[in-house]
Amino acid sequence: MDMRIALVPGDGIGPDIVREAVRVLDRIGEIYGHGISYTEIDAGGISIDRNKVPLTPQALEKAAASDAVLLGAVGGPKWDAMPGELRPEKALLGLRSGLGLFCNFRPAVLYPELAGASPLKESTIAGGVDLLVVRELTGGIYFGEKGRSEDGQSAYDVMRYTAGEIERIARKAFDAARIRRRRVTLVDKANVLETSRLWRETVSRVASSYPDVELDFMYVDNASMQLVRDPSHFDVLLTENMFGDILSDEASMITGSIGMLASASLREDSFGMYEPIHGSAPDIAGKDIANPIATILSTAMMLRYSFSLEKEARSIEEAVERALADGVRTADIAKDGEERIGTAECGDEILRRLV
Ligand code: IPM
Ligand code: MG
Predict the structure, then answer these.
(1) Most buried pick, 110, 137, 213, 229, via CB within 10 A?
(2) pTM
């Protein structure tokens, strides 16, 4: 298969971790006989420096012309004082919306070897943590009308959803649940928000075509509590854009391994954008310290969702699992006394275990 991949290394540790992910992809290409070509795109702070804007129309076009996008991270203190429209984060939002990537999958998995890194008690995570946050990514309050009054002393951000937007993401969640543990929990604030009531109505309707999947509902405040009380309750957690942003950070933390978690942003066809869920960690950029595993696992998601290459995806995931079992640890996941290796060496260790 020929794959044309757009690379968006971005800022901070982005280039460090994307480099390792590309080495892994190249080796997969060699082993399984796929041709992989890359085109690099500036987005985020680096694009602000070079082009004065976080994302140029040309960059978006290049991304759209590829089969899939691999993104490192964007942002950093250097650009924190920029006005809202010119912040590096705007590049991410522009890519998501410009590419129509309405469906965000954020798996949170507790690796048994790293259980000690979870801030939760051993008894709380004894049932395991293996959940998938399905976050709506191109609607809601992130993209609603926003503004200020003339005197600047009042501001608004509108949360709006259509039944169509809810239905398409709900189907993705139910489809995902079918190949998992067959439970969808819709997280909302239906006791207060009208948009949430539309979510419940619409998701309930979609659920009737999935009689084999159990649906339950949870208010977002309660869900944030249940996540730390009994994370094993959750299989697929379906939710709107902003709640998904917040809950996916919480879900990732309970696994203790924010440097390990990958994500996929998808639409109806096979195109997708893949990125680690962690940020750009500017304090450790370029120092060969960052954990590349989340980005490497993002390439596994890319192979699975954009190219239907399940065997190749599993090869990467299994190489990571074996490396962890063999004690491979970057600083963020090492316990006191464990040997810590750098970004490139971590890449080497995973490369060696690809079959
Ligand atoms: C995320 C991030 C982004 C978001 C920011 C950087 C715009 O927090 O991907 O979760 O809020 O969606
Ligand atoms: Mg976030």
Answers:
(1) 137
(2) 0.96
